[in-house]
Amino acid sequence: MSGGTGISLESVDVWFGEGEERVDAVIDATISVPLGGSFGLVGESGSGKSTILRAITGLAPTWSGRISVLGNNLGKTREREFYRSVQMVFQDPYASLHPRQTVDHVLSEALYLHGFKKPDERIIKTLDDVGLGQYFRFRYPHQLSGGQRQRVAIARALIIEPSILLLDEPTSALDVSVQAEILNLLTDLRAEHNLTYLMVSHDLAVVGHMCSDVAVMNLGRIVEVLDVASMRALKADHPYTRQLLEASVQRRREV
Amino acid sequence: MSNLLEVENLTVKFPTRSGMFEAVRDISFSLGRERLGIVGESGSGKSITGRSILRLIRHPGILEAKRIALEGQDLLQLSEKQMRQVRGHRISMIMQDPKFSLNPVMRIGDQICEAYRLHAKASKTEAKRKTLAMLEAVLIRDPERVFRAYPHEMSGGMGQRIMIAMMLIPDPQILIADEPTSALDVTVQKEVLEIMDKLVSERGMGLIFISHDLNVVSAFCDRVLIMYSGRIVETCRADKLHEATHPYTKGLLASLPQLESPVDRLAVLERDEVWRAAKSVSGTITAESHK
Amino acid sequence: MSDIPSLPTPKKQSLRQWLSSDSPTSRRQAKFAAWYRAWLAFRANPMAMFGLVILGALLAIALFAPIISPHDPFAQDLAARLSPPGEGGYILGSDSLGRDILSRLIYGSRITLYIVALVALLAPIVGLFIGTAAGYLGGWVDVVLMRITDIFLAFPRLVLALAFVSALGAGIENAVLAIVLTAWPPYARIARAETLTIRGADYIHAIKLQGAGALRVITRHIWPLCISSLVIRVTLDMAGIILVAAGLGFLGLGAQPPSPEWGAMISAGRQFILDHWWVATMPGLAIFTVSLAFNLLGDGLRDVLDPKKSAK
Predict the structure, then answer these.
(1) Does A252 contact B252 at a Cβ distance shorter than 8 Å?
(2) pLDDT tens string A104-131
(3) Could you confirm whether domain A5-224 is CATH 3.30.1490.20?
(4) Least packed by Cβ within 10 Å: which of B260, C100, C217, C243?
(5) Which of B108, B143, B171 is the last residue of a domain?
(6) pLDDT tens readout for residues B189-230
(7) ipTM for the whole predicted complex goes beyond 0.85
(8) Distance from the C98 Cα atom to the nearest Cα atom in chain A, whole angstroms
(9) Domain endpoint, select from B171, B191, B221
(10) Residue C131: pLDDT band by 50, 70, 90 thresholds?
(11) CATH of the domain at C156
(12) Preceding omega of C70 cis (within 30 degrees of 0)
């Protein structure tokens, strides 16, 4: 299973709008995530880190370059088979669940779309996997807390058994204690299901905890790719990376 | 030293279908000429505490307190009209997102001038001079340009500086900042905090800094109140936050991932019903807490 | 229905407990509980309840018209023509042909409900199809559909209805068709506007990333969110629709005599308005009451159904 390449991007540009109004969100991005690996994209707002995820999933259709997932080059459209293997967890759990659908409905829909048999068993198992239990199965989103909602969103992504999970700031809308629970859950799930993670975050500590390699983005460009050991040792070449590392460590140091 | 603000036995309740929900439960604290941090997770009642000082609890919420005294004057005794004089004039508040606090169809300069003239009865030229000076004070490089700009032309960090300028221009005694930097990037966050810190200490104001971010609060404040489900569970000096004793505070600190000290699994906060039921710790400054 | 081993729930619980449970154990219970919460919110609004009661009464009256009406609505008694209210056993008086106005109003409620039901079923559905398709698909589909909508919107409602009825002939069905033809564009606009805001939501992105096609996203995920605002709008528009139907009846292009349609009744009473006020006033009051009831109901529904509010 592992050993191959999960996701690879080569000289990818992503832009929005055309002509005069064209905005380049990502410029010449090249990254490679090994199968079973965990890769982080770090940057501040507007750096284009989430846009990379959107280009991979097909939500941002205007891009050029080469994106390949599990060895297959991607075109402009995505087959349903693609979504079988790649799923995404969104940033804001308050916005990523349909307000009029119960947890059960959300999960059944995912199973229906991919033609799974015995949906009931699978729903119960997945809810257990994400630590919710069937007690929550027939609740509406407004009857759930932020952390519980994010667990549902993770369950929705996992229930069709993808091999790659794209995580778009999965904990930035949550309290720190809930963040710890969700990050632990994601760590466990990766080990259990042998998943590949591509995680976007503005929080270096979170990425440092979750990922083995990190790409730092600034104004649409990847300025540096470094492994987590050098990040922890604050060994960065690019001044921007150093600035980011300092900002995130300094606050504690000052105390 | 006399306290700027004294809050005694504050309770805020909201009626719901399943009975009264007490968002803040019988808390007392005081504020001197210092930077007081209020930390807690969402739903801990920290923002509501900030709003109750200005008596900004919307119907059907109920605010009860023995006393909320600003320099000895009980704010609970004031009429709504007198209260409007207090808001902005003597106590200002900065919200999380400046986009919602600024009028989108009015030039930034005009908004700040208006805020100033409302309180100072100054002439237009005097107000403009003062506004430009204030924009400079929050380290805006080109105050003339910002003066003529509209809010949507500003970035988040710029917007928050403008809010600070606007809120400080009437020279309030107390500034309440509710998550003022949570929507900002880390590098910008630092700048905004430094600006706020400088202005507040220069003017000898009291600052109430409400945040969910323990690191920011411990680095930036003098004293911290830790709130949990509507109560103050612990109070300590900000620089001693990492020596906190309450299991909740300790649990929060432990659950943060740290870049320099990696762990395989993050500590998960185990909530104890006892914390909920326990009485509030007083956040009032006593002679002892000053030493 | 699901027959999963459910949680050990105490069997003996009241219906209310079952409905207000925060953790339902079956799809059915979750659905009913959601309806129950909406009902509780609706019940808290006295004006809306007032509207609902009136409309409930209207429905009952229409249903039991033969039983409750004191006279035959078509029986003429020329000797007792234009009797004032209360005289000669005519509670609301009689019209120019000596027919009992009350009985005619009671039978007329059937026609009113018929028109209302037909329009309420047709116009919003047409609007929903066109609006959500335009909003979700965007591009040239949006341009074409919305320009068609604009064209229909540009016609004065009554005039278009008039043209339509005169082309197809007078009668209730044609009047209804004419109303539908002029009533759908606003619904298409609302549905499109809603779709545009929903389209960019993360939960729609999420379902797209599950591999759902446009048709499924529109019908299963966008429609349920648009329907509530359409229901509100339809309810609020009902008054206007009743009035247009009455207007067509008044002009002689809707229901034909001797049908006791309320608008036609006002039209017939118009020539006696000065000396025999009740002939035109009574059906006028009926139209007024029902229109008001629909408006109150619509306001109440808005408070309950508005997704922006119920999303918390």
Answers:
(1) no
(2) 999 999 999 998 888 899 999 999 999 8
(3) no
(4) B260
(5) B171
(6) 888 888 888 888 888 899 999 998 888 888 889 999 999 989
(7) yes
(8) 55
(9) B171
(10) very high
(11) 1.10.3720.10
(12) no
